Structure formats: structure tokens, C-alpha cells
Amino acid sequence: MIIVSACLAGVNCRHDGKNRENPIIQKLISNHLAVPLCPEVLGGRPVPRVPCEITGGTAEQVLSGTAFVRDKNGKDVTAEVLDGVKIFMKAVARMNVTAVILKTKSPTCGRGKVHDGTFTGKMIDGNGVLTAALLKEGIRVYTEEDCEAFAKGLLGG
To answer: What whole-number distance in Å separates Cα of residue 102 and Cα of residue 31?
Structure first.
């Protein structure tokens, strides 16, 4: 069993109230190989919500308490994001998950590239807070951009 970002499963849970439904993810779910979760919603963030970005450091620094996640209006939403990460990580442990597929560029789910914290659309190298927590625990993290081979293996071809 794997966990996938709920927005990739077609759930309207993105900050803009929309989704990024992905046919590969849908196939995993319909074959009972994946469960959709949204860490930001798990942490109490509303849908729709003001977009947020990591500020003052990296996702790893958010986990250690020295950087923050703020929304575009400047509100500190770090506690909500961390609450969602904790709940997500509990699900990973309970379900014995070894891999996840998450949404790129998100301050929570992103892997490899995230927004730079200025809300200008500029991307930087780095991970989202959940991805940082998962990698720290040795969980493989894929995105919708690089999951095809992994998903085909699960689907038997």
C-alpha cells in the first residue's frame, strides 16, 4: 500500500479548491494499491486557502523549529502544516508504507523544487515539509512527474 497526494487522486483539496487529477494515480487507487491523503487538510487548513510557502529556511529547518511556513498574507501556518505532517506520518507507520507519491512544488509535498518564499513564482532546490519528514524516515518519495515506472511496477506492467 502507498499513500498519494489527495489532489492527484482528483480530490478538490488544493489551495485554490481544485485538483490535479492524474490517471496513473487513479489507476493505483482503483486497484486498491493507494490511499489518498492531503497533509494540509489533515492539519486543519481550509479549502480553498491562501497559498503558503516556506520562509526563513528549508523544510528541514521548519521541522527543527527554525524556519516557518507562512501564507501569502504573512500569517504563520507552520503549526497547521506540522500537525498535518504528524498525522500523515502516523498513517505511514500504521500502514507500513514504504513509498508515497506527492504533488510537486508544494511547500508541504514538494520534492526537489519548491517556491522560494517570496510568492513570486520563483523556484529553488528543496523539499516540502512532509517530504523532508518522509525522507528522514527512509520513505521513498515520488512525484506525479516521476512516478510512472514505479506505478507500473505496482500495477504489474
So the answer is: 18
| Dist CA 77 CA 82 (whole Å) | 9
Grid coordinates given for 64:
527543527
End-to-end Cα distance, the chain: 17
pLDDT in tens, 64-80: 999 999 999 999 999 99
Could you give the strand order of the β-sheet that contains 99-102, starting from the edge strand earlier in sequence?
A: 34-37, 2-5, 99-102, 140-143
Assessment of whether the complete model's pTM goes beyond 0.90: yes
Residues in contact with 102: Cβ distance below 8 Å, sequence separation at least 6, in sequence order: 4, 5, 8, 109, 110, 111, 128, 130, 131, 141, 142, 143
**What type of residue sits at position 130?**
L
Q: What ranges do the domains of the chain cover?
A: 2-155
